[in-house]
Amino acid sequence: MIDLYYWPTPNGHKITLFLEEAGLDYKIVPVNIGTGDQFKPEFLAFSPNNRMPAIIDHDPADGGDAITVFESGAILQYLAEKTGKFIPTDVRERKTVMEWLFWQMGGLGPMAGQNHHFGTYAPEKIPYAITRYVNETNRLYGVLNKRLEGRKFIAGDDYTIADMACYPWIVSHEKQQQDLNEFPNLKRWFEAIQSRPATIAAYKAGEGLRAGEMSEEDKKILFGQTAKSTQKS
Description:
It is globular and about 50 Å long. It has helices spanning 10-22, 41-44, 72-83, 91-121, 127-147, 161-170, 184-194, 197-204, 216-223, 227-230, and strands spanning 2-6, 26-30, 54-57, 67-70. A 4-stranded mixed sheet has the order 2-1-3-4, with helices on one face. It is built from 10 helices and 4 strands.
């Protein structure tokens, strides 16, 4: 059994995508990031960056004590290695998967996240910031579209953790002011993953957790933290 500390965000969806695809038993432990669950001492004990997702694997491959993992990319890699699924054994193919996993973690996720923040959540609409992140998101969509030319999935013919990492960040393409019709390879890939039974199940798993729009108080909790405020506990 795996305890998944989760909230229905792109990074949270990455992990339910893997768990559903791999058929692993898991239990969702909600981490309401709007009310500050991510700052509770018991969560910080194994997720010190006060971010979800994080997991506790009660049945690790070595048969020892439970293993905790934080950071969505590290969780995907850990689960892939644990199960031997969705990551190649060939050194060159594996290298490619890891490149694109890190590309998502270092580029697509952070840039699309800032796109969401300045376009949707920021109390002041700053045209420069909005344009900056919409354009950078657009550039990254172009990189992925080019990569998918002639390929079924990001690393080739097989569905991998690289695809699972990237897909949730494309789901909100309209909010990011991106038109998938401008990226035909990306659109074909997106629709193929969207229709997978495990994808449908993964997104259904988070239904009902988030209630309505984020309040102003939620935004203060989520976006107003500093080192001083997070270390009070």
